[in-house]
Specification:
The structure holds two protein chains of two kinds. Chain A is an alpha+beta fold. Chain A is 51% helix and 19% strand. In chain A, α2 runs parallel beside α10, α9 runs antiparallel to α15 and α15 runs antiparallel to α28. Chain A is flat. By secondary structure, chain B is an alpha/beta fold. Helix content of chain B is 31%, strand content 26%. Chain B contains 14 helices and 22 strands. Classes of the chains: A alpha+beta, B alpha/beta. Chains A and B meet through α1, α9, α14 and α26 of A and α2, α3, α9, β19 and α10 of B.
């Protein structure tokens, strides 16, 4: 054994340069797991920071709240010491003690009295001065919030309170959260301890509070799990001493975000697999370049009687030491990149490096062993066994293809249960298969190219033919470059996919540029604006009303399913961003819109009078009559028709209105009486029924009819025979029996259709929907949905339930959506761009993209090294051939071109194969890992984008550099004054 | 006591499309302590014999016993053990025996260490060996710092330090000058005598006979002649009765394919049968130009590799219309001379002229241009496109020189070199001899005034060697200058001029 070890050491020492490229390649690939782990930590830290930044100031605190007990001064002091000590474990920020009494009402004024330590740092004086003293009988306070200062001052004087000024809060954490008194006026004294001693309120209930800011840096330094654990311990300790205390802390939010970041980081398993491919691939390429020298060593040792096992041990030791050196160098390189990431994320550099190395070492160890084994195998495999090698490799390829197919057919994973081994294996499988295909293609491609090159291109022809003669190196390099290019394409495509995912998710939430829905005081956006007004607000702006309601689908099996019903204009559908991605259909929006189009009864002439007077006869006193008007652009309005003798009178609201319907309902008084009677057991109540005759109206009665009563025109009057049996009677102009409504539905709902028909119940009305399209998804919906043309849906539902077909939201397409919607603060306005920005800028998302970019860069670096290695190896191993050609009169410049063209031939085959492999890998990866860039399961699911520009730029830069390096290396060759003899050279 | 015993050994190598027999029923016995020198032309099976004896190649048939180990059917461990403990192998190239990363003493000690001897003990014994053989001053040096002679002597030490029973040496002086070669012979003789080992020395060098107890010659994979130094040559009759008649003898009796043998008292008399000899004479005399200007010439050329001078004050001219041979033992400077003449190497002194241009004044690229115009080279390696067939390779050679296609010329050349049946076979599927003939064809189809060939018959059997010789002679007769470096007497028989180097 000692001789074996010393031989291996001597080999490595003798010409370390030959091993240096292997070490460099292994180092670059081995750096990836470390960088991935470091990036995970950085991303987690940035996620915590972003999360905290997005919290409201009150939520960004840790607060101990004591209620229900009035502490003595000594108790308060003891608790104060305890709580400050405990809270110091969680935050470096000072603890502010606060106090707020329960609401006080004094002399007609309602207010809160509170106190905070170090008041001057918490408020800004608006008028008067800050409190200077507080004794049990006289305490100066400042007023905050509403309320008349003079009234307050008068009201609180009997409590010993003196209002000395008015102030506003500058520290939003003061009396926030649990201690927040709300909008009521607040009087604030300086010093919780002093104010709590106020004698007039000595027995008055109060809440004590100790508040400190959440210390983000400590959270990051400890790590979220440790921080949350410690936070729980602190809370337990405090609660154990103060029974009535509660500790309010944002642990749950932190934990949720941490889980999200961790989930996304598990996707980095894909990168681990990519690292493995690069590492092992490069080990093969590097080993191929060492084979010639190693074969000489093996021959010497075998001639001297060394056994195969001994030779294998020498080889293994050499490969192991080189790979170990590469792994160590890779760890250093990875640590360097991690340091940069940590520094960028402003987290402790050394701790991050240490943690990254700690996380990555098992993967690195595994890779190291695999790389050493592969290197040894390539070095030792005898030349005569080429066919066996190919068969073995092909078998591996087929096995990988099978494994990839089996793995991919399992479906996607959310990674919620931890790292899926297949996720890490996928790049290996894909790269092996892609690399083998490329390897197989190289020789025929080179042969074909050699035949196709112009007759005069000696360099091309003899270069390619010569390379085919000894194909191991170009074939191995082609396979490796394919894997490297696939890694780059995968990184680029996955990066673009994640970015596209953010765009898709934003478009799913806001299909156009903005959505306006009702606000706190306004139920519909049409109450304050209209599509036409919005469209006129900025150039190139379009607004579309959307009807949103809910219904129930009742399949034949008797079950029922709640569905969201959306009425969308065809034009709006055509403007849905990334239609095919968000809906998942291959049908164009125009096609779907065309299929949904349905005839809609025309509106009658507008009502031209301001007051509607209808002569009526036969109207039961138990019946209320409602006239429904519509503007035709989505606004419906009811007009109550009051009885005035034999007349019904109602006032038409301002604007241009068309009659929509007349409804007959039991009036409230009758309905209440009716229900009471039934409740008392008197079921024999008469049903309200009869015949009403409506006299001449400001519109023609011709065409009016009803689905649940009998109506007919007689002269200028409308005769209606009705029975009110639970549902209202609806009379509509241009009446036709309810048509089938063309609908687009989700696949699950479609599967319940009977011969393409769905029975949809909207309140008490049943509509038959005819399924004309099945869409996997539709923006703004969750769960089952039914999409119809807005006007058709509106017409159908309004004729059954007037008012329900009104526009409930507006979708706005505008390059200036923010400006257009800015005035409508009464509405809920949701803009797509900020959502997209938030998703894109999410630290987890940007961390993923950064890591993918680093991976791509490293892959290209390794690819460049491999191309250089190819040229160097060709020069060295084909010295005899080069010499022979030169002896034949071929100029050295032609031979240099020949070497360069060989490298180009490898790149030319590897590039398309790598592109295809990378794209397939990205496609499978995106489908397999069902989490988006920010670590949540996205809706719509990730849809693969190639990221053509980014990837092309990277590939052109990287491979261009590699080819340029090959050209540079080749151009320096064969420059000696005379050709060297191609003899055995063991120097 | 028998150290080496080979009986009726056959050794077949698979080649694309069949097998080639390197040994064809060879039988040989070498006694313990005997020093046997083996001669033979290139391709006769000498190296295969050594590889069989070293256990690196298993014989296809027959029995082989070395140092008491039966190698027919021996497992890998047995063969390794044989090499490790009982064999010492000296290669033609010291670089293939010595490891550059180890010092001389560690190289010498390597085999002992592989055998399990401790480092200290192995180095002690290696040191003793070096001292005994007068090389102790080299002990701490690296192989790269040694001269060729020194390196080869160290290689001999490395093969002997573990005191093997049998020493196998393959052209150990092939790259050495005379003095160094003598030193290596002396070293070998002394070393094997000191440890009582058997020596089997394969060489072209006739002078090696001075350390031999017996000399044998191998032809076509069999033992054909044997003699003792200074004694007459005897034909070998093997145990099956096979006797190989030398070419001169066959010609002397007037028939080359069949003879009538008659046993007389103590003699065998062979009579020619008088049948028609279908093989044309080796050389069809062709008209020569009376006085031809040399196409290439060297004058006062001196070339040395380190301290080893291979060419010293050499003058030589290569004229059109003549087949000129350069002969000499391995290492005598034949290949070096060809390189100097073609501008692939510069002499340390003297001048070389090609097509009237002094090569010393030219840089690398113009020299390539000059060769492209005037010289066709068939080296031992050869630049051939393996995936292409024979015809395509020959066409490519013309393309590489910018010549127009000439299928007729290619067909004629292929025919002449007995390659017609292989014309559409990829070169990678050809045997070594076939490839060599393609290389010769390649040098002819480019129609250059000077054709330079390095050992063009080294892989040919005698019949094909004669074909090659005839084609080259015809090329010379056609007006080209043909220059061959060779050992082969078949070529010598048709040469117009021979220059022997020593």
């Amino acid at each position: 054994m000692p001789v074996i070890a010393s031989l291996a050491a001597a080999q490595l020492r003798h010409r370390p340069g030959r091993w240096a490229l292997l070490v460099a390649g292994v180092a670059l690939a081995a750096a990836i797991p470390v960088v991935a782990a470091g990036a995970g930590d950085s991303v987690a830290a940035q996620t915590v920071r972003t999360t905290v930044r997005q919290m409201s100031p009150g939520d960004r605190t840790i607060t101990v709240v004591g209620t229900g007990t009035i502490y003595s001064r000594s108790q308060a002091a003891a608790f104060d010491a305890l709580i400050r000590g405990q809270m110091a474990q969680l935050s470096r920020y000072p603890v502010r003690r606060e106090l707020v009494f329960h609401q006080l009402s004094q002399k007609g004024a309602t207010f809160f009295l509170g106190a905070a330590d170090d008041l001057r740092t918490a408020v800004r004086l608006m008028s008067g001065r800050l409190p200077r003293s507080c004794t049990p009988t006289r305490c100066e306070v400042v007023a905050l919030g509403g309320g008349n200062e003079a009234t307050l001052a008068h009201a609180v004087a009997s409590l010993g309170l003196v209002v000395v000024g008015r102030a506003e809060r500058t520290d939003p954490t003061v009396l926030s959260g649990e201690l927040d008194p709300g909008p009521e006026p607040l009087l604030l004294g300086d010093g919780a301890d002093a104010v709590s001693q106020l004698e007039p309120l000595s027995l008055f209930a109060r809440t004590y509070g100790w508040v400190t800011n959440l210390d983000v840096e400590r959270v990051i330094a400890l790590g979220v799990p440790t921080y949350v654990r410690r936070s729980s311990e602190v809370a337990d300790t405090i609660i154990a001493k103060l029974d009535s205390a509660t500790v309010v802390r944002p642990d749950e939010t932190l934990n949720d975000e941490y889980q999200r970041a961790s989930l996304s980081a598990r996707r980095f398993g894909l990168l681990g697999g990519t690292a493995a491919v690069l590492l092992l691939g490069f080990a093969i390429v590097a080993a191929v370049s060492l084979r010639r020298d190693h074969a000489v060593l093996v021959a010497v040792l075998r001639r001297r009687g060394a056994r195969i096992a001994g030779v294998g041990t020498v080889t293994g030791l050499e490969a192991g030491v080189a790979c170990l050196a590469g792994a160590v160098l890779g760890a250093v390189l990875g640590a360097g990149v991690t340091a940069g990431l940590a520094s960028r994320a402003d987290i402790p550099v050394w701790r991050t490096i240490w943690q990254a190395l700690g996380s990555a070492w098992p993967a690195m160890l595994l890779l190291l062993v695999a790389a050493a084994a592969v290197t040894s195998a390539v070095l030792l495999w005898p030349d005569r066994d080429r066919r066996t090698v190919w068969r073995t490799v092909e078998l591996i390829g087929v096995a990988c293809l099978g494994a990839a197919w089996l793995g991919a057919s399992r479906g996607s994973t959310s990674l919620a249960d931890g790292t899926d081994p297949f996720v890490a294996a996928l790049p290996v499988l894909a790269a092996v298969v892609g690399g083998l295909v490329a390897a197989h293609l190289w020789a025929p491609s080179a042969r074909l190219a050699a035949r196709l090159v112009p007759r005069g291109s000696v360099a091309g022809r003899i270069g390619l033919l010569g390379a085919i003669r000894r194909p191991l190196r170009p074939v191995a390099t082609t396979a490796f470059l394919t894997a490297a290019v696939a890694s780059v394409v995968f990184a680029g495509a996955y990066r673009a996919t994640l970015l596209g995912g953010a765009i898709d998710q934003a478009a799913y939430q806001v299909p156009l540029d903005a959505t306006l829905t009702g606000g706190r005081d306004v139920t519909t956006p049409l109450a304050v604006t209209s599509p036409s007004a919005l469209a006129a607000a900025a150039p190139d702006t379009r607004a579309y009303g959307v009807v949103r309601t809910s219904g129930v689908v009742r399949p034949l099996d008797g079950s029922s399913e709640q569905v969201t019903m959306l009425g969308v204009d065809g034009a709006a559908m055509r403007e849905v961003r990334r239609w095919s991605h968000v809906t998942g259909t291959s049908d164009s929006p125009a096609t779907v819109a065309d299929r949904l189009r349905a005839p809609v009864p025309a509106l009658g002439p507008p009502v031209t009078v301001r007051t509607v007077n209808l002569e009526v006869s036969g109207l039961s006193p138990a019946v209320d009559v409602l006239l429904w008007l519509t503007t035709g652009d989505g606004r419906d309005a009811p007009v109550e028709l009051h009885r005035q003798g034999s007349r019904l009178t109602g006032t038409v609201p301002p604007g241009s209105w068309h009659p929509l319907a007349i409804t007959l309902n039991e009036n409230t008084e009758y309905a209440t009486h009716h229900q009471h009677a039934i409740g008392e057991g008197n079921t024999d109540q008469p049903i309200v029924a009869g015949t009403i005759s409506f006299g001449a109206a400001p519109w023609s009665w011709v065409g009016w009819g009803s689905a649940n009563s009998t109506a007919g025109v007689s002269g200028a009057a409308l005769q209606v025979s009705y029975r009110l049996e639970g549902s209202q009677i609806v009379l509509v102009p241009n009446y036709t029996p309810p048509p089938e409504l063309p609908v687009a539905v989700d696949p699950a709902t479609a599967s319940t259709a009977d011969h393409g028909r769905l029975t949809i119940t909207l309140d008490e009305v049943t509509v038959i929907g005819r399924v004309v399209a099945t869409l996997p998804r539709f923006p703004t919906t969750s769960g089952p949905f039914i999409i119809a043309d807005r006007r058709a849906l509106s017409s159908v539902v309004d004729r059954s339930q007037p008012g329900t077909g009104a526009t409930s939201e507006i979708w706005l397409a505008s390059p200036e959506a923010a400006r257009v919607t800015a005035p409508f603060h009464q509405l809920t306005v949701t803009l797509r761009a900020p959502i997209q920005q938030r998703l894109t800028d999410d630290p987890v998302a940007s961390g993923s993209r950064l890591l993918l970019a680093i991976l791509a860069g490293l892959a290209l670096l390794v690819a460049g090294v491999a191309v250089v290695l190819l040229v160097l190896g060709d020069r060295r191993d084909d010295a005899g051939e080069l010499h022979a050609w030169e002896a034949d009169g071929v100029r050295p410049a032609t031979l240099r071109r020949m070497l360069f063209l060989r490298a180009v031939s490898v790149v030319a085959v590897a590039l398309p194969c790598g592109l295809i492999t990378g794209f397939v890998l990205a496609q499978v990866g995106a489908k397999l890992v069902a989490v988006d860039a920010s670590g949540v399961t996205p809706v719509p699911p990730l849809s693969v984008s190639i990221g053509a520009a980014w990837t092309a730029l990277l590939l052109i830069a990287g491979l261009g550099l590699a080819v340029a390096l090959a050209a540079a290396v080749a151009s320096r060759m064969l420059r000696e004054r005379l050709p060297a003899r191609p003899e055995l050279d063991l120097r | 006591m028998i150290a080496i015993d080979i009986a009726d050994a056959f050794c077949l190598y698979p080649i694309p499309g069949g097998t080639v027999a390197a040994l064809r029923g060879l039988s040989l016995t070498v006694a313990v302590g005997e020093r046997l020198v083996v001669h033979g032309p290139n391709g006769s099976g000498k190296t295969t014999l050594l590889r069989v004896l070293a256990g690196e190649v298993a014989p296809s048939a027959g029995t082989v016993s070395v140092a008491g180990v039966d190698l027919a059917g021996a497992d890998e461990a047995t063969r390794s053990r044989l090499r490790l403990t009982r064999l010492g192998i000296v290669d033609q190239h010291s670089a293939r025996a010595l490891r550059p990363e180890l010092s001389v003493i560690d190289n010498v000690a390597l085999q002992l260490r592989l055998a399990g001897v401790s480092r200290v003990e192995a180095r002690r014994r290696a040191s003793e060996t070096l001292q005994r053989l007068g090389l102790d001053e080299l002990a701490q040096r690296r192989p790269v710092s040694l001269s060729g002679g020194e390196a080869q002597r160290v290689a001999v030490c490395a093969a002997l330090a573990h005191e093997p029973t049998v020493v196998l040496a393959d052209e150990p002086t092939g790259e050495l000058d005379l003095a160094s070669a003598d030193a290596v012979y002396d070293l070998l003789a002394d070393a094997v005598a000191a440890i009582g080992a058997t020596l089997l020395l394969v060489t072209h060098d006739q002078r090696a006979a001075r350390i031999a107890d017996r000399v044998v010659r191998i032809r076509d994979g069999r033992l054909s002649e044997q003699w003792t130094p200074d004694g007459p040559e005897f034909l070998v009759v093997d145990d099956r009765g096979w006797v190989r008649l030398p070419e001169q003898l066959r010609r002397a009796i007037g028939a080359e394919q069949t003879v009538r043998a008659q046993g007389e008292a103590g003699r065998i008399v062979l009579h020619g049968t008088g049948e028609v000899d279908t093989v044309p004479p080796a050389r069809m005399p062709a008209p020569r130009s009376a006085v031809a200007e040399p196409i290439a010439a060297v004058s006062g050329v001196r070339v040395a590799y380190g301290t080893r001078v291979v060419l010293d004050g050499l003058d030589m001219e290569v004229c059109p219309g003549a087949l000129t041979l350069v002969r000499g033992r391995s290492g005598s400077g034949k290949s070096t001379l060809l390189r100097v003449l073609t501008g692939l190497a510069d002499p340390d002194a003297g001048r070389a002229v090609l097509a009237g241009v002094e090569l010393g004044a030219l840089r690398r690229a113009p020299r390539a241009d000059l060769r492209r115009k005037y010289v066709a080279v068939a080296g031992q390696g050869g630049a051939m496109a393996e995936p292409l067939d024979v015809i395509e390779n020959l066409a490519l050679a013309r393309i590489a020189r910018g010549l127009p296609a000439d299928p007729d010329l290619i067909d004629k050349t292929v025919e002449a070199l007995s390659l017609a049946a292989l014309r559409e076979r990829a070169v990678r599927l050809l045997s070594g001899g076939e490839r060599q003939r393609v290389a010769v064809a390649r040098s002819l189809v480019v129609e250059r005034p000077l054709v330079v060939l390095d050992e063009p018959t080294s892989s040919q059997d005698e019949a094909h060697a004669e074909i090659v010789a005839r084609v080259l002679a015809d090329a010379a007769a056609g007006g080209r200058a043909v220059l061959c470096a060779t050992h082969d007497p078949v070529l010598a028989a048709v040469a117009d001029a021979t220059r022997t180097l020593d």
